[in-house]
Write a structure and sequence with these properties.
The structure is a single chain. By secondary structure, this protein is of the alpha+beta class. It contains 9 helices and 10 strands. The strands form 3 sheets. Strands 4, 5, 6, 7, 8 and 9 form a 6-stranded antiparallel sheet that branches. A hairpin with a 6-residue loop joins β1 (12-14) and β2. Residues 1-9 have low confidence and may be disordered.
Length: 275
């Protein structure tokens, strides 16, 4: 009796698609559809992976595009220990420019997860560099090391290396054309003197990259935490709508569901300007 259902709606079910309401005794053919988690709604990835840097933090692409580069030649040398004869290291912590660019693109993608333990670029500096600028970047160096004594600065990009003997260049290594393994092996050879061609940026992009990564990481973690904790409620569909919703992806309910997800997420993130 439809009239009895209208008298007490607490004992009935309403179809989320067509809005028909029936008494609970008449609703055995209704099907409950589990509500989806918010993070499963793909179009919203652009929102919950959004970046919210403070207004005084320059956009990274703009920051790197405004850099100017100075080409310099630096001679770096080291002296074997008088006691053991052991050759000290150059004292540089380096990274490949290709890895830095890949790390930047990975963070800017809509799928980056700072909690991913398999992120192969987790230790790389996220830098947006000119495509033709390839080599190795100096991320840090040891105090009183050969690198520091030669005047190497953090952020310098080494593009060419010359093997030297008493100040005379004998062989050139073009790092832009070499494989990464060969670049690293080059600095493990027992050369006592090298002449480096470097590109020096006009600003400390290494410290900027570290600050920017920490900011984005904390932001994405908090946004993903909000999104993953919210689940849309389960809903019921009548037999007619069940076939449409499950098998035909009924457009009417799909649009309503997506609108519900958008509203909920926009409100939670205080993105009222998006509504």
């Amino acid at each position: 009796n439809t009239g009895d259902c209208d008298l007490d709606k607490r004992v009935g079910l309403r179809c989320a698609n067509c809005d028909v309401f029936v008494h609970s005794n008449c609703s055995l053919s209704f099907q409950m559809i589990k509500g989806a988690s918010l993070h499963e709604y793909k179009p919203l990835e652009r929102i919950f992976c959004a970046r919210i840097p403070p207004s005084n933090f320059m956009d990274p692409k703009r920051k790197y595009q405004e850099l100017s580069w100075e080409r310099k030649a630096v001679v770096i040398s080291r002296i074997p220990s008088e006691k053991s004869g052991q050759i000290p290291s150059w004292g540089m912590l380096i990274d490949h420019t290709e890895d830095c660019v890949a790390a930047f693109e990975n963070i800017m993608s809509l799928t980056w997860n700072p909690n991913d333990v398999n992120d192969c670029y987790a230790e790389s500096l996220p830098l947006f560099l000119p495509p033709k600028l390839k080599g190795i970047i100096v991320k840090d160096f040891a105090v009183d090391s050969a690198a520091q004594n030669a005047g190497i600065q953090i952020g310098d990009i080494i593009t060419d290396v010359y093997m030297c003997v008493e100040g005379t260049r004998l062989r050139k290594f073009d790092l832009q054309m070499m494989k990464r393994e060969d670049r690293e092996n080059l600095f493990f050879h027992k050369y006592l003197e090298l002449s480096l061609i470097i590109q020096r940026p006009s600003d400390n992009m290494v410290s900027y990259a570290k600050e920017w990564r920490c900011l984005v990481e904390s932001t994405v973690r908090s946004l993903k935490g909000i999104v993953c904790s919210d689940v849309l409620p389960d809903y019921w569909c009548c037999p007619e709508c069940t076939q449409e919703t499950v098998n035909k992806a009924d457009t009417r309910y799909k649009v309503a569901e997506e609108a519900m997800q958008c509203r909920l997420l926009i409100q939670r993130l205080s993105f009222d300007w998006c509504s």
